[in-house]
Amino acid sequence: MSGHYTVTVLGGGAWGTALALAMLRSGHAVRLWARDDESVAAISRGENPRYLPGIAFEAGIDATSDLDAAIRDTDCVLVVTPAQTLRSVLTGLKGRLAPEVPLVLCAKGIERDTGRLLSDIATEILPDNPAAALSGPSFATDVARGLPTAVVVAARDEALAAALAIRFSGTTLRCYSSDDLTGVELGGALKNVFAIAAGAVSGAGLGASAQAALVTRGFVELRRVGAAFGARAETLMGLSGLGDLMLTCSSTQSRNFAYGMALGRHEDLADRPLAEGVATSGIAARIARERDLDAPIIKAVAAILDGAITINEAVTGLMSRPLKAEAD
Ligand SMILES: NC(=O)C1=CN([C@@H]2O[C@H](COP(=O)(O)OP(=O)(O)OC[C@H]3O[C@@H](n4cnc5c(N)ncnc54)[C@H](OP(=O)(O)O)[C@@H]3O)[C@@H](O)[C@H]2O)C=CC1
Ligand SMILES: O=C(CO)COP(=O)(O)O
User: Fold this and answer.
1) Is the complex ipTM higher than 0.85?
2) Which site among 41, 49, 114, 261 is 20 to 30 Å from 55 CA-CA?
3) Ligand 1: which of 80, 259, 271 to mutate, most ligand atoms within 8 Å of CB?
4) 158 vs 132, 155, 163, 180, 240, CA distance in Å?
5) Where are the beta strands (DSSP E) in 95-187?
6) Rounded to the nearest whole angstrom, what is the distance from the C-alpha of residue 4 to the centroid of ligand 2?
7) Which atom of ligand 1 is least distant from the CA of 142?
8) What is the pLDDT of residue 321?
9) Ligand whose nearest atom lies closest to the CA of 82
10) 94 in catalytic set
11) What pTM does this model have?
12) Those residues with Cβ within 8 angstroms of residue 66's Cβ, 6 or more apart along the chain or in another chain
């Protein structure tokens, strides 16, 4: 990984486009693969009206719908399609991507049907390509506009994480590194569940105090689930975890928060932008049950989204749990 560096981005949505721009601005040759020709043409022109409306950006991303052209002789692949599509996208790379090329997983989620973390799926499908994750508080619109942003790049191989973080960093994107891949992945995946919950609290008009309590106790659940997976507590107190909770549990810019708001206001939930927390809440609740983890907020979000309980019933349930010490 020295000299001229080519980065391939898979996914032409908001985050794929923003990360491609960040990589371009960090001085790399950037190829972006999107499955539809309209997105390819728009990104080549310097816009992505469907996913980043109103943002004009510099030309220079080599966008294509030809997957082989996108990954040919590449140094690194950023996978930026929704979490539930990861398995099919990676399967499409089998036998085509050169071994050893790192796969940087940029989606935030847990596989709904299996409960597997995204890096586990990557290792299962492409065992010869080291898996890394990029996560943290970072709205695509902010990154695309070149606003200062900090994220964390994680891999089990500390040297790989550090090398990627150095490569990816630029004047407006600062990348920290971590060898706690599990912690970074879980922080990114689970914050979406709490962002939906925080949005629902806001949408239902339950007040700022309730919102602060929800986020704080959500963080306790995040740490409990993290501990069960072997994640380090300090990772979850970092950018992917606490940092991303702070961002997405307080801003209507977050699609998960906005989804929760719509839920709290009893608005129509059909045809909304991607909210990864919808899929993650169900599987996270199942994991909590299977591992006997105390995760009442995660379970409440899953039950509300399943239509099993109302927001009012969830609030009553959470408020009437047996009293206990805060640290328990
Ligand atoms: N947006 C953000 O601010 C951030 C997003 N993320 C994470 O990044 C991931 C992607 O989000 P984001 O880019 O915002 O989502 P968008 O909805 O903006 O875009 C999704 C992209 O994935 C493509 N896609 C969907 N399914 C497939 C598939 N089966 N094969 C190939 N391409 C597919 C879509 O293509 P098509 O248009 O053809 O459907 C589209 O280009 C999510 O996990 C999200 O949590 C992380 C940090 C910030
Ligand atoms: O993960 C994000 C910011 O860090 C984006 O959040 P949303 O997917 O909720 O918009």
Assistant:
1) yes
2) 261
3) 80
4) 10, 6, 9, 9, 17
5) 103-105, 131-135, 149-155, 173-178
6) 31
7) 3
8) 97
9) 1
10) no
11) 0.98
12) 33
